[in-house]
Every structure is written in structure tokens, then in C-alpha cells.
Predict the structure.
Amino acid sequence: MQRRMSTESRQASGESPEARNIPQAVIKRLSLYSRVLQALEMQNIEKISSAELGRQLGFNSAQVRKDLAFFGQFGVPGFGYYVEDLRINLRHILGKDRTVRVILLGVGNLGSALISYGGFTKQGFAMLRGFDIDPDRARERAHTDVPIVSTTQLEQEVGSMDVDIAVLAVPASQAQEMADRLVALGIKAILNFVPVRLNTPPDVHVRYVDLALELESLSYYVR
Amino acid sequence: MQRRMSTESRQASGESPEARNIPQAVIKRLSLYSRVLQALEMQNIEKISSAELGRQLGFNSAQVRKDLAFFGQFGVPGFGYYVEDLRINLRHILGKDRTVRVILLGVGNLGSALISYGGFTKQGFAMLRGFDIDPDRARERAHTDVPIVSTTQLEQEVGSMDVDIAVLAVPASQAQEMADRLVALGIKAILNFVPVRLNTPPDVHVRYVDLALELESLSYYVR
DNA sequence: TAGATTGTTAATCGATTAACAATC
DNA sequence: TAGATTGTTAATCGATTAACAATC
């Protein structure tokens, strides 16, 4: 198999993400594609078709091509996609070609699992700090090298730290106040594990992960 | 305000969940409605309109009514919904009017957070057992009363236990094997935290929660 | 009765899939 | 060249929203 980059055809848009409106579902699928490509690279597989890439994730081949078409032309007609090439492009599109800087608010049960969770670091995220009302107890719970400091120090710590994403795992009663402080600090993305709808300005992206909700909606199928 | 149950108009379908095909998104919203109703009950609010219920969650009022219409007629035209009445109906529809029985596979970082997570128990789930390859280490990690036993004992333990949902938090390399064993045991619902597409029969419901994916798709917005 | 809000049908919107000319 | 697969347009499907008669 010939090894050649489709460098000419590539035009990985450096567009601001907000410019056009890319559906969130597309972004999630791009992440999935990227993961499959990573696995293929590890198996030294150099090319893949949209049909095969889709099949591995349960998607239609047209969907794969359409998703990619939002951002440019990455394939070679009659041939398919160069795995490495496409992966590089996707990482760039997703902003994963640099380290994404993360802090964690609330180092309780869930928080300490998240901060110790190897998966994040492995995937190119840098967990910079954990914040907790009771940092001593939090340090006991979470076996981690990540510094855990008092929530009262949030502003002075974050000021100089250039944080990309804040992960919110505080008690429900504190979630909105925490969100307000994060917004005031200029943080533009929040991954919220607290089952509370946050009130934030439109330029702040909040993603909700609601574990009890997932379990609850599953229980519908086992009645 | 008059207190009267719309008992006559109620016809909370006892339909098998699979009979008609209710979109998963509808089921998730029902859970959210149920939660809002719970909060309203605690505030002693007795009635609510579809408009107000939707507003609190960011949904259109027509969507609220349409979602409910999948299952019956629960409101009073010109009036709205009795909070308690609707909540009872939703709990029945979701299968949450009885205790939902859950086991956890893999008591590592994430697993031990999940097993200690008060939210589940509070919401009417019973966490019956944790299973881990190394139950001694797992018990140290997870500060919980839930019995943690060896994964080798899965079959003999579950046989007599009537499990509704299995939560999967094992290493990726073991996820498919674990899923096969759960399927063989007749378990019909899996909440999967492992970033691996599971191969299961069509009557088994698998819900994926992929924490790294959530963080990754958020990072798109902060490039 | 007048006012309000439901349940439901019709209209709209958006996302997925099919089809196919372009092209490697 | 013949075969394969892309990128993209058109068709389909499904979900959301608007509208309104029914009715409390």
C-alpha cells in the first residue's frame, strides 16, 4: 500500500468553532472517530474507508463523510482516508493538538474518582488543581499528585493558570454559586456533574453529565 | 386552590416498554420532569402547567405535553397538572415505584466513587454488590457498606439476586467478557462507563457514559 | 360564562440516509 | 482503463414546535 499524505486536499479549517453552527452530536462523533483512528494507528493500519470507520461505531458511511465535510476534505476519492492524516486533522479540529487544561471543583466521592482517573491524563488533559471546602479531607480521599487547595483560593489560583475547562462536582446547593465564580474568572467551558441547571451566559459552554438520570432512564427498560 | 386528583382521566399505561417505540430522549425528559415535580412537592406546590414545567428545564410547553401523551392523559384542560398525581404517574411509567436493584462491576477509581455515591440510594436504587478482581483492595478504596466480592463469584451471587441493572466500570480489556457474563445471567440493562462498544443481544439495553468523550467534545469549544 | 390550558393534529425544522457524479 | 470510494446534493425520516378545537 502506497504511503502518501493527502496534504494538498487537506484544508482543516482553523475556523472559530462558533462561526458556523456545528451540531454537538457531530463533535461527539468526531471524538469517536479520533479514538478509532488512534486504535488503527496502534495496529499499523494506514488506510480506512468511511464505511469501515462507520461500521466500527454503528454509523452510516454517509454520516461519517457528512460529519467530516463540515470541516473540509480529508479523503482520497476511490481510496479512503489515510489514518494518520485524518487523525491529525481531527485532533486539530477538536483542539486536542495541545494540552487542555482542567480544574476540578469539589473533591468528594465523585470528584476524587475523577481527579484520580488515569483516563483524562492519558488522553491529553492536564488536571491542574482540585478545589474543596475541606482540602485536608479531600486529600485523604483522593490518592493523587494533583494539588488540592481550599475553594476560598479559587480566584487567586486560577488567575494565573489559563484554565480551559472546569469540572463541577460540588454539592447541589453550591453549584450555581460556583458557576458564577467560574464565569467571573472567564472560564468558557464547564463539565457539570451536579444535577442542577446552571444559569450562565450564552458564550459559556456547559455540558451536563447526570449519573442518576442515566440510571433512572435505564430503569424504564427493566420494569 | 382546590385539591382533587384527576383520577378518572389518568390511564398510566402499563404497556410493556418495548411495545411502542418511545424515543430515549423522551424517557430522559420524563426523568427530568419527575425531578422537578419532586422539588415542587417539597415546596408544597400543588399544580403546574406544561408551560411552567417546560420553562424550568428549558423545553417548549408542547414538548412537555407531547412527551406525556405517549403514555396517557394526565392533565386537566384549562387547569394544568396536579403535581402529586403527575409525579406518581411518572414514577410508575419509569418503573421507579419500586426499588431498582443494581450491581457494580469493577470497583476501581470510578467504581468506588459510584458505589459510595449517595445519590443513587437516595433516588430509590439499591446497590446490592460490588464485584472486583481484587476485592480486598477494592474494599479499602471504597468506603461503603455495600458488600464487595470477587468477580469469580459473580454467577453464584447474582443467580439468586434478581438484578435489574449492572453498572460496568472494569478495565477496557475486560469489558466485553464481563458483558457476555451479564447477558448469560439474564441481565437486561447495562450502564457502561467503559469506552468500549459492547456486543450484546438486541433485548439488552446498554447506555454509554463516556467521561473522556464529554471532556474531549467540550475542548472543541475552548480552542 | 370567560379564561386558561390541555391533548392532538398539522407545519416546521433538523438530522440521517440514499444516490450519484467526480475522481483517484 | 476498471473499480472503488469520496464529497455533495436530494430524499427520507424523525423530532420539535405551532396552532387550535375541546374542555375544565
Notes: The CA atoms of residues 11 and 72 of chain A lie 5 Å apart.
